[in-house]
Write a structure and sequence with these properties.
Length: 446
Amino acid sequence: MAQTKTDRIFHTLRHRIESGELAEGAQLMSLRHAAESFGVSKNIMVTVYDRLVAQGLASARQGAGFFVSHPAAATAEPVNLREARDSVSLLHAQLDRPYKVLVGDGRPPESWLLNAAPAITLGSGERGYGTPHGLLALREYIAGAQITAGIDVSPAQIVTTFGANHALDLVIRRFTRPGETVLVDDPGYYPLFAKLKLAGLSVIGIPRGPRGPDPDALQRAAEHHRARLFFTQSLAQNPTGCSIDLPTAHAILQIAERRDMLVIDDDPFIDLPGVSGTRLACLDQFRRVIQIGTYSKILSPSLRSGYLIADTEIATSLAELKMVLTVSSSVFTERMIAEIIRSRRYEKLRGQLAKRLAREREEAIERLSGLGMPLFAPPASGLYGWLPLPGDLDDLDVAQQAAAQGIFLAPGTLFRPGETHHGPALRLNWSRVNDSRFYSFLRGLR
């Protein structure tokens, strides 16, 4: 989310040290004077100075204070790692969870998800490290779900992972080299942007509208940058909640064919009933599409289990890379998920989740309409909605104001891959939005 006072002061001092404005050996202000200078408490400055010391940018001398230093070359934090970490400040806030109202959180409440997993008894079956592709029983269930959706898939095309983010890591490692350019949705999935920065890649955003990515912008960017990868989301996209329609899906795949480009479709709501839109894989049959799925949004984020589906040759290559990096994914977790699917608990749970989300979404849209705050576009079901704010507001400042009242918001700026100016907005989580404190806060903005 928007940076805290601690973050802002830390980044200010780090920039002054790294730019040479504060030379090596220079003494930093005392804690008392620094607190007065920045208008914060002494405790905040203690935290800031501790972070500078931890990163090798300052050293503490007993009885003398803090002095500027520079980390040894072997331990210096790479710029791409620092940029990647800064890009996921919103995720850091979600994991810390110091808030009372979690409108900006990216997940449904745990109380909405599976709470009976500990009661599941697993019989005998595959044990040990497992295979690089993952548990066969689970891959067979995943393949069966795709066949039901009209996509011909074999278990050999599926690789299980430690969640969708692990699958994205595998694809990035396998298909990119530092300095190359990749294309992403704008607005899009901000943790992906951090991974791409960490890999040393240039990132170009493709404007996302109510019907999906702009095909003309995608065509121009693919040609100009010779991009080989496009990361998108077909259904109920994070953060807009909108899906790709059929004409846009056709256009995307035609561009991918002409430009010899792979399309990475990261879809956390593949299994959620009632989501409208066109899955790219339904048209492509995994010739150029790599599909990424996860159980985090429907079962539990704590399970950390997902998968990717691709052409058999690509899937084999990614399974081998997975073996090199992590040996295998968790056989125990995958057996538990397979049992949840086999027992039909999964089918029941995803149906309940879809109905509950629909009720909350309908109520929220009505309440927002009553405030004169329409959505960017009607959502295609799913978990998210995109709420434009009045143009004279700054969504980062709005998030800071909300945080002071114990309300966690997700400012739209953080979902943008570049620094181009866009209108202020918030990503909404339908499972958490209907709290009177949030609507009272919105009324105070107008």
